[in-house]
């Protein structure tokens, strides 16, 4: 009976994540890694890995984002090791049509992808995922000052690049 | 007028992908099933590690210098400066701690141009980056950051390669087959052995210096390879008789001069002929001839 309840609770938790955070987390992982192909797979793996554990992090979306990014970054080692057929429910094609994108949005996206990895991660978590500095620091297990430093550098870099773009 | 942060946020928001509701149910079922299974299928994946490194400052930077050196030497021992950087990070007090005292820290994620095999993992009792990334931060406080390091060999992994033409396996394959060989077991067969008796020989009238003709016919199912003949005198002495092949017949002659030197009138000599085929089968036939020489020379 308790097992059934646990499954029901898990299903409810997963459904809530899919409805509120899933698409954004997949987008964040794709944006941070530049790997659209494996972003959704990695998010699913990270979600399974996290919720299969005994405890759940306070900021599940941020946590899943970071874990999934690490999966993608190391994903080339998994090639061939897992032949699972993932269920895909996220569509990136809308990003590829220039009609739906403003010039600024395209320029920002390109500038973010050119950021150093550490800065790009913090920028994505903050500006795209909407995480606060303290949440990012807690999720990454680093000091807030570290997050602030990387965020400041990333912002400065984006600012300078986008000014060049506008000019 | 929006500030830069808002513009940045809006621009990234516009980049967000869309969701397909059609596959949501299937995705939910798959994820729940995998979670109920304990996430075992994810265990094969490489454990994640943080991509953001802490920045040391102030007194803590000084306090970590010893750690940098110690771990740095360990990294030099394993030939990986990248591993040293990762190990140094483990001394950070703010790093989450694992539940177990000894955990495995993997070297930084390799890139396609930086093969993993060059960075063997380091085992340490310091907090694990790997563990910190896969466990909630609340569990991550290292009670004993004493930096003892044990270098472990890389775990066995799959190896791909090509085998050359000279490659052999450990199993010796044996093929058995039966070949039927028909062995020649039939000895040559003598048709007839003739020792002609010229006029006077048996009556003791053989002329000195003449020879007594000898001929023998031999047959074999495969083929006769050699025919030899000899004459044995009453004294026990024997002498070969040269033969030459004339078709299926071998011919030679008994030298009367030699006989005359050894024979007395009325004594007999024994002529023996032996035939051999290719298989080594032999046949022998003999005949006795009386000869006498009244005069020679």
Topology record:
The complex is a heterodimer of chains A (167) and B (297).
Chain A: H1 2-20, H2 22-33, H3 36-51, H4 60-73, E1 90-91, H5 93-96, H6 103-113, H7 117-128, H8 133-140, H9 144-166
Helix pairs in contact in A: 2-3, 2-4, 2-7, 3-4, 6-9, 7-9, 8-9
Chain B: H1 4-14, E1 18-19, H2 24-36, H3 58-77, H4 81-89, E2 103-105, E3 122-124, H5 129-134, E4 149-151, E5 189-195, E6 211-219, E7 224-232, E8 238-241, E9 243-246, E10 249-255, H6 256-262, E11 268-277, E12 282-290
Antiparallel strand pairs in B: 2-3, 3-4, 5-6, 6-10, 7-8, 7-11, 9-10, 11-12
Short description:
The complex is a heterodimer of chains A (167) and B (297). Chain A is an all-alpha fold.
Can you tell me about this structure?
Helices cover 71% and strands 1% of the residues of chain A. Chain A has 167 residues and is mostly helical. Chain A has two domains: 1-89, no CATH class; 98-167, Winged helix-like DNA-binding domain superfamily/Winged helix DNA-binding domain (Arc Repressor Mutant, subunit A), CATH 1.10.10.10. The longest helix of chain A is centred in the last third of the chain and has 23 residues, at 144-166. With 297 residues, chain B is of the alpha+beta class. In chain B, helix 3 runs antiparallel to helix 4 (81-89). Chain B is rod-shaped, with a radius of gyration of 53 Å. Chain B folds into two domains: 46-155, no CATH class; 189-290, Immunoglobulin-like (Sandwich), CATH 2.60.40. The chains are: A mainly alpha (167), B alpha+beta (297).
The helical percent of chain B reads 10-25%
Quaternary structure classification: heterodimer
Work out the count of structural domains of chain A: 2
Quickly count the helices of chain B.
6
Rg of chain A, alpha carbons: 17 Å
What radius of gyration of chain B results from the CA coordinates? 53 Å
Strand runs of chain B, count: 12
Overall spatial form of chain B: rod-shaped
Number of strands of chain A: 1
Portion of residues within helices of chain A: over 70%
Strand order of the largest sheet of chain B: 5-6-10-9
The H/E string of chain B reads HEHHHEEHEEEEEEEHEE
Outline type of chain A: globular
Which pair of protein chains has the largest interface, and what are the residue counts? A-B, 79 and 62 residues
Cα distance spanning the termini of chain B: 155 Å
The stretches of 5 or more residues of chain B where confidence is low (pLDDT under 50) are 45-51, 53-69, 83-148, 199-205
Order of helices and strands of chain A: HHHHEHHHHH
On the 0-100 scale, what is the average pLDDT of chain A? 81
